[in-house]
Amino acid sequence: MNTSADIAMRHRIEPEDRDRVRQIVESTAMFRPDEVGVAVELVDERLAKGEASGYHFAFAERAGEVAGYACFGPIACTIASFDLYWIAVAPDLQGRGLGRRLVEEAERQIRALGGQRVYIDTSGRPQYEPTRRFYERCGYAVQAVLPEFYAPGDDRVIFFKRLG
Amino acid sequence: MNTSADIAMRHRIEPEDRDRVRQIVESTAMFRPDEVGVAVELVDERLAKGEASGYHFAFAERAGEVAGYACFGPIACTIASFDLYWIAVAPDLQGRGLGRRLVEEAERQIRALGGQRVYIDTSGRPQYEPTRRFYERCGYAVQAVLPEFYAPGDDRVIFFKRLG
Question: What is the ipTM of this complex?
């Protein structure tokens, strides 16, 4: 089935999500070990500090299994700007509109938290071309590019969307 | 005396720096209470976790008193990029080249930590015009502007310098 009709969204975090997030992020083969570590760290922060951590989550579940997740939160010292820090979908479940559903769920929660502006950072490397096209399809536009920010030849591309 | 010859630099942090940082940041009258809170939080993180916090400091001392400070650190998921998070000088000691000395000390430490690229975020509001000119005099250039990032009418201006 090429639909996401059998997907349920959950935003309450569970201790088991620590391993699930690690598995999903690793399974995409898009991130270095230090980046995987950062993804897991945000789960730890949330589990330890609750909402005060500033990290919010959306989990997409299919038949009781976590198929993907998004992590986002308010940006310190701003009135209504949020970062969408992470979005990842298990490789065998990609191409079903799940990423899109996760972005929409994140935006729904961000609106509920008073957010009006969403920023997403991603890499300018060729292998991230599908990622960048995906954000454009979700209504995001490039607002700035910081050359070589991540590493030589690896620009930081800042996407932005104003929530309606 | 209009020089900074009597200034000593210290980068080892002390528990007393928590109150000193709060006092200096508040005394500049440039920051909202939530921003002051963030400045103090970075000191707390450093005191609790040491270098693992990712926050490094330079303190400028004059006659045994802290006259200003800078806070900086490596940016996660980058190879050699650093953020200069905070720089503040007590109002009665401004105009003596102390800010400049603090930026240079931060850059020296950043180089020693393997950093090659330094980013500074600041506001596009008129009251930050002297701050922006100061960063330009220190060799930084605007690399991106994110309109209304902080609040309506309050852009985020990203300055950048490549360390030689």
Answer: 0.90
